[in-house]
Every structure is written in structure tokens, then in C-alpha cells.
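To fix ideas, we close by showing one paired sequence and structure record:
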Amino acid sequence: METKYRSIYEFSRLTRIFHWIRAFSIFALIATGFYIAYPFLAPNNFTGEPVGFLYALMRSWHLIFGFLLIAVSIFRIYIFLFSKECHIERRSFLDLINPIVWVKIIGNYLFIAAHPHIKGAYNPIQLVTYIGVMFLIFAISLTGLILYAHVFHEGLGGFLSFLRPLEVFFGGIANVRGIHHILTWAFIIFLPIHIYMAVWNATRYPGAGVDTIVSGYKFEKDGQH
């Protein structure tokens, strides 16, 4: 008997666009951030003229992608909370408070239980992880803005001067920079795990995982509830 599948629209177009913009921004921020911390390359300058400001270029790109990440994350939170197309994502909280789903999904990751049917787009472990990532983005953005205000004293930097008490709370600008760097490593640890689990899900459960965040659709067996 032929197995029939039905498509479910899981991720809206904006959700998918914002996901890939954030992903690209995070990779760019990691690369430029490590160069800023340790400028391991220098442009050839045989003339002695003040040209080839590679460090300044890297810093500019770091700022551009940093503000892009902040803007996209704000809009992503907004559509998650208020967009009608994101209702299936919000339904994930119903699974979050269901202990039976927690036990089954942990068992599934340990290869001792079948994957439970979930009401939302994310299982409880995924939802908790993504909420944690949003807090990471908030923390690294906050420390980044403090560093920005410490260098640029007019315009937006001047406006952000109200963050100076936080700089003092963290123990000074050196500590803020250290926290910013440590949070970068948190992303470096998260990214390969996230990619592995997305590919693992897509391989073990065709119709979910990586292809869903590209097309927006997942596929379930017809009649599955």
C-alpha cells in the first residue's frame, strides 16, 4: 500500500529569511571578531602611505553585521509573538509543559523511543535551546553596544551612553570585552551542534530538519495526529 503524506506549512517566509540572515551574520561576526581580537593579517604597504586599513575594514564589517543581527532578532521576536503565520511555532509551548513529550523526546534522542507527535514546530529541547540562543544574542548584543558606545561618543554612540552604568557593573570595559569574547565561544559551540542535529533530524525523519527551514514545509503521514 502506498504511503501518503500531507504537507504542513511550518515556517513562514520571513522566519526563513531571518534565520539565514542571522546565520550569515553570526558567521561573519565570529570571523571579523577574531580578527579584531588578534589581527593575524596585514596588508602589504611598500609605499609607506596610510592606505590598506584592513583592521578598520574588519571593524566596520563587524559593526554592520552586529547591527544587522540586532535588527533581525528584534523583528524575529516580533513575528514570533504576533504573526498569524507563526502560530505553529507558538504552539510549541504546549509541548514544553507536557512531561510526557519531554520523556519521549529524550528517549528518541537516546535511540530507545519513537519520536512523539508534537503540536508545534519545535520539540521541548529545541524550544529551550532556541530561547537560550535568543538570550545569548541579547547578551552579546548588549556587551557589543557597550563597547560601541565606549569608542563612538556622538550620534548613536552618544545615545547609548546610558549603558555606562552597565559597564561599571560588569567591572569595566576590559571585563565587558572579555564577556563579549566568551559569549562568542558559546556560539561557536552551539553552531556545529545545531547543524549536526538539523542534519540528523532531516536524515532520520525525511520531511523535517534542514529542508523545512529552506522550503517552509514539513511532511507527515496522512492521518497522523
Q: What stands out?
A: The beta strands are 5-9, 217-221. The mean pLDDT is 89.
